Amino acid sequence: MGSLCTAGAGTAADQKVAKDIEKNLIRVEKVDKKENKLLLLGTGSSGKSTLFKGLRLVNGSTFDTKEQIDTRHVIRSNIVAAIMTLLQKSQMLYEKDPEQFGDCQVNINDQNIVKAIQVVVSFADESFNDDANMPPTRLEALGNSVSSLWLLPALQQTYENRQNRFSFLDNMEHYFGKVQEIMKLDYIPSDEDVLKSRIRTTGVIEMIYEKDDNIFKICDVGGQRSERKKWIHSFEHVAAVIFVTALNHYSCVLFEDETRNAMHEAMELFDDICNSKWFRKSGNCNFLFFFMYAHPLHFACGLLHVFICIWRNAMYCLNRDDIAGWEGDQWNSTLDYVTKPNVQYTDDPDFLPCYQAALEFILDQFLKINKDPEKTVYHHVTCATDSNSVEYVFWDVQNFVIRANLKRGGLMV
């Protein structure tokens, strides 16, 4: 009997262990297979949509023919809009201060310049949706006209003086430099062209992929002010918020409001998101990530100008109750940014220390906005058009989310 009782007890124990293992495996499967929602947030032109497209490439997706053709339409439209902006702003700057911006005035007595402008203006209302049926000579004429106008010293000076004075699309130098190729009838955008294209995000764009048995759904939502009221519908069941801001916004103005510094806007928005009731220990969001978007050549800045930009906004972001007395939206742009044409910052031995100091200063101002001492804000500095950088930082994002799931499932301390 004793041996039978012992055997029976052993069998019961074995069965309990087996059941525990089975339950644990079920829990692991549930944790592994749970869809992890990652929300991309940021102001307009922050680089979040570029990051979104970069993640697609990193995860093995490609841009199909329809996307390439749609992007071609947008690139061509943006080129026309951008060169017309430079023409308009060149005159605006000259009229504002002929002495300071005398070099920005376009010589309209030059008939070749006038003819080039007329060609561009003839495309002002063109969507390019039917560009495949356009006469090749008409498109080529546009490419030649834009190329000649872009090389005008007056427009080059206007472009150099854009900071904190008027909004201008990013990466237009890239497209202006190959505009004659872009205006060929058979032009198909490369991956780089698609990544650098500026397409305003409206609504929510989603991408789902599986990584090591973990499902990730990345949601890119529009960053313009008019789009932010829709964000509330995306805040439920979020595993991580990826907030993106552009480092070069210290010297940029908003597309929606050219009296408003773009980095000021990003800091205020980060305050709203980071300290939102939706992400306060409610289980709605486990991690809040903060990507600082950098261009490949860093951001060419004088350290003083970054300090001025942040100093005027720091107390506002840290003390929202003082909003009535804050007048930081109205600033003298000539004090915020002093143009230094033709300066190669990267050739200066003091550039890297200056860059690092400015970077750490800006990062510190954002991190101070977090009012919850128990909330960790993970941060990365990356370039959204560099696939290696995107892959590296997103590997960290995946790891953090997976570890959070394991902890929540009781499988990790």
Automatic annotation (TrEMBL):
GTP binds at residues 195-201, 220-224. The keyword Transcription does not apply. GO terms for biological process: adenylate cyclase-modulating G protein-coupled receptor signaling pathway. GO terms for molecular function: G protein-coupled receptor binding; G-protein beta/gamma-subunit complex binding; GTP binding; GTPase activity; metal ion binding. Mg(2+) binds at residues 49, 201. Pfam families: G-alpha. InterPro entries: Gprotein_alpha_su, GproteinA_insert, P-loop_NTPase. PROSITE patterns: G_ALPHA. One of its GO terms (cellular component) is cytoplasm. The chain crosses the membrane at residues 287-311. PANTHER family: GTP-BINDING PROTEIN ALPHA SUBUNIT (PTHR10218), GUANINE NUCLEOTIDE-BINDING PROTEIN ALPHA-5 SUBUNIT (PTHR10218:SF302). This is Guanine nucleotide-binding protein subunit alpha. It comes from Reticulomyxa filosa.
